[in-house]
Amino acid sequence: SACTCTQDDSCPPMHASRLFAPRRHMWLCLRRSPDVLKKGESQMPWVVQMGLTERGIEDLGDVVSVKHLFASSPNDSTARRGEDLMSIEWEGHRITTADELYHTVWDTINGVTTISAPIEGEVQKLHKGAKNVEADTCLVEMLVNDESLNDAMPELITEEEYMKFVEGDPRGLFVDDDSDEAWEHKEVKGNHAVVHELVGR
Questions:
Q1: 17: which residues sit within 8 A by CB, 6+ positions away?
Q2: C-alpha 155, offset from chain centre
Q3: Which of 173, 114, 108, 117 is nearest to 142 (CA)?
Q4: Best mean pLDDT range from 19-23, 32-36, 191-195
Q5: CA-CA distance, 199 to 160, in Å (whole number)?
Q6: Which phi and psi angles does 57 have, rounded to 5°?
Q7: Are 164 and 158 in contact (CB under 8 A)?
Q8: Which residues are registered as beta bridge partners of 19?
Q9: Residue 28: closest CA among 156, 168, 131
Q10: Of 59, 119, 111, the residue nearest 89 (C-alpha)
Q11: 37 pLDDT band (50/70/90 cuts)?
């Protein structure tokens, strides 16, 4: 599901919009827990949804599977900051070389991206869609208290700060790139790409 954080009177300005964990390329969407809105108090006042940013998605090929690494117990569903929550197995194809006849050579790449908690909290939901991971996909939902949020804040930045961070960050493995060489026609279907003609400029 997509991030559902909206501005309202219960959210301070710094928490009304998404925050970002830049080194993990993750977004965090914070909103007040329903308990806070109804009763005015809660031990876990924040509902935090999180997922990969557009830049994070650039490092994923075609998703093969999503495996949950975090297992809660009846007495403890708390994930510590930095604890692995899930792994995303993917595969993709990348151009390596082209010969004198412009026949393109492709390499198959397989990898696993591990999603770890940028903040400590009680895990409520983990994404179950096996192959549906987009930039607006909520991968994890947690309940977080003020202390955990404050502890994580030094490693979290605003959207404006994240945009500046991404500008200086190398692009991902599978970013769409139409730079100095133009593809006259390219089809990408599932786990393979069919290139009909490469036109060098």
A1: 5, 7, 158, 159
A2: 16
A3: 117
A4: 19-23
A5: 37
A6: -65, -30
A7: no
A8: 28
A9: 156
A10: 111
A11: low
Residue with tokens 């993750």: 26
Per-residue exposure over 88-106, b if at least 16 CB sit within 10 Å of its own CB, e if not: bebebbeeeeeeeeeebee
For residue 5, give both structure tokens: 């954080």
Q: For the chain, what is the radius of gyration of the CA atoms?
A: 20
Q: Supply 73's token pair.
A: 């117990």
Contacts of range 34-38, beta carbons closer than 8 Å, 24 or more positions apart: 36/10, 37/10
Q: Tell me the C-alpha to C-alpha distance, in Å, between residue 177 and each of 99, 164, 170, 181.
A: 20, 20, 13, 9
Q: pTM for this one?
A: 0.72
114 pLDDT above the threshold of 70? yes
Reported residue count of the chain is 201
Residue 82 is which amino acid? G
Secondary structure class of 151 (helix, strand, coil): helix
Residue 19, C-beta contacts closer than 8 angstroms, at least 6 positions apart = 27, 28, 30, 156, 157, 158, 159
